[in-house]
Amino acid sequence: MAIRVLDKLADITGEYDAIFCDVWGVLHNGVRSWTPAWKALAAEREKGKAVVLITNAPRPKGPVSEQLATLGVPGEAYDDIVTSGDVTRALIGENARMIFHIGPDRDMSLYDGLDVEPVEEREAAAVVCTGFFDDETETPKDYHEMLQRLRARNLPFICANPDIVVERGDRLVYCAGALAKDFGLMGGRTLIAGKPHAPIYREAMARAAAALGREVEPSRVLAIGDGMTTDVKGAMDFGLDLLFISDGIHAREYGTPGNPDPQRLAYHLNGFGAHPVATMTKLA
Prior knowledge:
CATH superfamily of the largest domain: HAD superfamily/HAD-like
Low-confidence stretches: none
């Protein structure tokens, strides 16, 4: 069956009350934002729809909102933001006070207000991974021995960003999800609340309801995203309709950036059991 291809977001939103929109790969690529994308969301808000940005960023929504502003995405484009960092904070608080942090210093805002103490690896009772220490140069292989040591101690591994890779300009860089995947393959216990897992979607539903002043049914929510194992799987598992953005992290798997091959794209989606209500190359 042919997949509907949209020219404009407005062509499909009439039947929805809320929109859950991914950030990286849809609104920006870490270096620049796409003006037509945020303007399309702003137009939906003007029609009275709730727009909640739902992102696997490992930081709370405050720093993410600040980053969006620096990239040219204004607050008028959304009602609220739910981050993987927001919902991961509960996991951290439930599991241990002495934590070993894996990730860059810019992610330390994740712990603001939590009763935790970052410690050295040998002292930790749990691991919290927000990313790589240096995602410009490191790969998962650089962490293999460390993960083996952590697994040998049977420490829980809390992953604050389930993405495997993310776009940064024209490149793909590794995220915390790549290390969580390897740790799980070693038999380790991983704890994840971000996409595609339910906690981040439950929180997004609550934020949409708050924006509208009433409850929202999942059947009246349109999810927008480009990641198969995060956005697509998350929407499918939570019972949301999906608008798939093809010019994202998978673009080279079914064509070239900006020019997806329709048959290869359909085959790619079918391979994941994904049935989006429509696709767009870029959100507009």
